[in-house]
């Protein structure tokens, strides 16, 4: 029996560029590029990169095996040393966030949900291919639990055991052992040996990238700012998937341009623009909602303390003896000791780092983003707020997620916050003058 | 004579305030937002001007605030309603011996603001996305109880028994909870009192986040609701300061700011 | 930029390990071969310029006269003759406050020899050892015990309780006695003295320690410094010294880079963010930590309050090859 | 090896003692105090002078500070700067007879004594002798570090022969403080050109203040008359244990003796600071005539003496084989232990154990 009106409708492939996530990225990118004046010319590479990867779904080439990382705690130097390429899987797409909700409770962290959603979709963006292995450092609960989910999706997942206390010597050694174990795992995966030469080359790669980042970081010390925070976030987000050497070269080019800007006395913002320190859950493209709102409202993000920028690239490794053994241990130390991730039991370091950043970057206030469901940031809010309160630094705590529907409300809050900072500044000047 | 205006384009109502050179209120006007709030805003402004017998050119500086502030291009400048509210409350509070803490319940949001002794915002908190504890909540409740919004205040005091507990924090769920309570034979008065206490306790929690100092200035449309005021005062355990036109404090603040900005600009022009 | 700033930048960007290597050679030549050139810095040096190195030495380790004085009969020790000791201490102190424990990190011949042994190990590609936290705490007491014995045994000799064969007890077990004279081609310390039980035991102990010294220094950086009673003695006076190691806790990220390179495994250098004066009893003031600190101004060496060597980002990047572009 | 050499040397030398010119009655100076009589002073002196060695040798309790600047025993001796509180001086006594163990302490014979003290710089001073318990004694003040020579000259006429007794002693004030030692001056012998016969020990080139003579050493003496070397003078040596040897000075006036080993204690009783005394004497006869105090003589006999001290050879108690052996053993087995420990130590930290007791 066939009914004339009933028929099977075959799946109609939609080209990626017409998909929802492409649209989402397109919107944000247009916003980043077109709604601001005087974007640095060297940023064009990054704009084009994101357009190509997120809007057109172009493939990214990589060398050797692909090792996905779900956290900055995975030592990428080791991955490079084995001739593989690391790629950070943390995702900022609202589209994937919604997709990932089928794995995680809806109240859980958008970032983890989006990452799962991305990994589970047929059309993984950024398109880098299927990772040969995913390294999942056991940091926060949600990342921990996503391990088996990723495994169920058919990925080879390696749980890199990460301690939750960093003060003790025992945890330091535990972590060193974890990292050594990881090296063994990578050896099995790649079938290559960890050599002094290879590791040193990897150190040079990341070291140079870090040096370039630090240079970029130092230009943000200038007041008035010569570069906006949204561009910095875009640059550091590109580090997730871009070829490291090319990325470094482009950042170095950007640094050259910034030096010229500095010499010319260029201003990217009004000289009275409130300087904001950004902290908390990481802004990951295309979810640059909050930094963009701040800068649209006339503020400027001058520094950040988040794992998508500063925390990822700032701390550098020191090695005393350039031998595999010492280099691996140093590496382990670098990924544990300076880390200010809120997953640790105590986090005096984060508070101190924040206060120091406010001081050295002459920030007028702090915006603290916590993804709803990102419990560790939510829980740490009180103590951080108290520290800032004592230091007389205003802080705005924003609990949000990837959905764009609270933009209106957020913009009111951010504007009010910026206005209060401006007033404060005026008052201070009056008191001084 | 120079006049200055502030317009607060809110989600439920548009408020306009005009002040003279000395910062005294010349007049206020409140109208519903409706769907065409740009048009309505202009109408509200013009209405007030004609009531006051002023021309559009008499308004030397106009500042917009509220959700629609950016879309109201006729304004000279815009400012967030939090700052405007703080300024307005600070100015209005002078008559009451000064205030440091402001609670504002609006149509869609509720805010608590702490200001310093010069009127600057020190700290503020806003409800998150959800509309629980806002004017909208009262709106929905009034509709469910077949009452006018204005009647809620009177009913509050008619209750003979203790206010009922309204547990739901979500407006939508609260609606069904109210229906359930009515079905169980509870009186409207105690339900209304319960609603007021529910909103009051949420608001107090918000206010505690910013810190409560001595007197609390309470504004926004729901401040006209005497029952809510009583509940809030009960929960706070503090003196409340309620201005004459609680709805227009924010617009008034914008107008004051307009006056200040104008003067600041004038002082920059060489004589 | 002023000239001073130029100099400061140059100093802060120095390839520190290389600089230190040459400075150590200079001091080694001065203290171990200085006698050739007629250099005589006296017998109050706060470093192991070993007296057993005969005529070659350019000065003498203070521990030698110190133990000798302590051996004086008590009636003499507690008489006006003790002014000699006070005078000696004063000279020692003056030498010491100039460099603080920089004497250990830069001047000490025994320290330098250990660094050379470490280089040898590094050249062979053998990894170094570290103490566990428990071992570190336990063994850290040894230097204080040695310091106490170094005073008590000679006092006991002076008091008539111990045989005179026990004289200069620390010198007898100090690897400096056996190792430093080797650089003057003098192997005479490498023998066992069978003339009495005490002598036999002490000389055997001395060579035992020498053996341990070589193994220890091979696998552990600055092995002996951890047990050195001279270091303990230094620490007692370090607060008065001119050369200081300072830390600005607020700038520290506790990244542990300094702990990483510390030859003596001093954890406080990375973890302590309260104290400005960060020197511990184990610190040899080699200033490697300052060279390995990426945070500008977090660690600095000051002389009489004037910063002379400071941690800088640029210096770190240069020293740690961070800006290298020659990979592939 | 060394011991064999010493024995052979001793044997060969004892064969040529025929022309012994030794006089059993020689007069010599010593730093050894007479036994009982002045014991208290000796003790006082020793304490004052700071006891340097635990040497219980009956011969020398007064330290001679000759244990070497950096002697090879690992003992470093640092003497203080001579100062007000610690005035260095040495006391010297006179003995007669060549049996070092038994010869009696004596006083001056009356004769015609003269006492001279010469310091390292050659400064001569005439000193007055003293007496203690009826015995001759001399307290020599030694303000500067270095060698001092004390000369006694005593003349008497017996049976028409003038006997000129010329005992001499070398005193040393030593210090380890390098700046205070003038090494060249130390190596240079002190010569008294005013005496008719003198025995001078030739210092070693690297002698310094802290060197000392040990068994097996070859010790050189020079026979001088008025500062000029004299050949053909018989010189004899007597050691503490009574070993004797006589040699005749050569053209440059020198004689050489190899110190024999005489100290053979059990191991545990061995004292490396055991000090023995030797006595060297030379006799020169001349046909000169004259008169002394009214007594005429037709010939003159000069008798010069010089005592010295020596100690056991370090080779008797030092072993390089053992020293190197121990350090080698430690390095090899310690290294192995470290290697094995590091290889087996896969657990990076100690397990925490909890049991009923804790």
List the helices and strands and how they pair.
The complex is a heterotetramer of chains A (433), B (271), C (328) and D (358).
Chain A (H helix, E strand, L loop, with lengths): L19 H15 L9 H12 L10 E4 L6 H6 L3 E4 L5 H7 L9 H11 L12 E5 L3 H12 L4 E4 L8 H22 L5 H24 L9 H10 L5 H21 L10 E6 L8 H8 L3 E6 L4 H4 L10 H13 L11 H13 L4 E7 L3 H17 L3 E6 L6 H26 L1
Parallel strand pairs in A: 1-2, 1-3, 3-4, 5-6, 5-7, 7-8
Helix pairs in contact in A: 1-2, 4-5, 5-6, 7-13, 8-10, 11-16
Chain C lengths: L2 H10 L3 H18 L29 H8 L3 H4 L4 H18 L2 H6 L1 H16 L8 H7 L2 H17 L10 H5 L1 H5 L12 E2 L3 H23 L9 H9 L5 E5 L9 H5 L6 H4 L16 H4 L7 E5 L2 E5 L2 H7 L9
Antiparallel strand pairs in C: 2-3, 3-4
Helix pairs in contact in C: 3-9, 7-12, 9-13
Chain D lengths: L1 H13 L12 E4 L8 H10 L40 E8 L17 E6 L4 E3 L3 E3 L2 E7 L4 E13 L2 E13 L9 H5 L10 E4 L11 E2 L3 E8 L2 E2 L4 E6 L4 E5 L5 E5 L17 E11 L3 E3 L2 E3 L1 E13 L6 E2 H25 L14
Parallel strand pairs in D: 8-19, 10-19
Antiparallel strand pairs in D: 1-2, 2-6, 3-4, 3-7, 5-6, 7-8, 9-11, 11-12, 11-15, 13-14, 13-16, 16-19, 17-18
Characterize the structure shown.
The complex is a heterotetramer of chains A (433), B (271), C (328) and D (358). Chain A is built from 16 helices and eight strands. Chain A is of the alpha/beta class. Chain A has one domain (20-432). The model of chain A has no long low-confidence stretch (mean pLDDT 90). The mean pLDDT of chain B is 87. Chain B has a single domain (3-129, 202-268), classed as 2-Layer Sandwich (Nucleotidyltransferase, domain 5). Chain B is of the alpha/beta class and 271 residues long. Chain D has 358 residues and is α+β, with helices and mostly antiparallel strands. In chain D, strands 3, 4, 7, 8, 10, 13, 14, 16 and 19 form a nine-stranded mixed sheet that branches. A four-stranded antiparallel sheet of chain D has the order 1-2-6-5, with no helix packed on it. Chains in contact: A-B, A-C, A-D, C-D. At the C-D interface, helix 3, strand 1 and helix 12 of C face strand 20 and helix 4 of D. Strand 1 of chain C pairs antiparallel with strand 20 (318-319) of chain D, so a sheet runs across the interface.
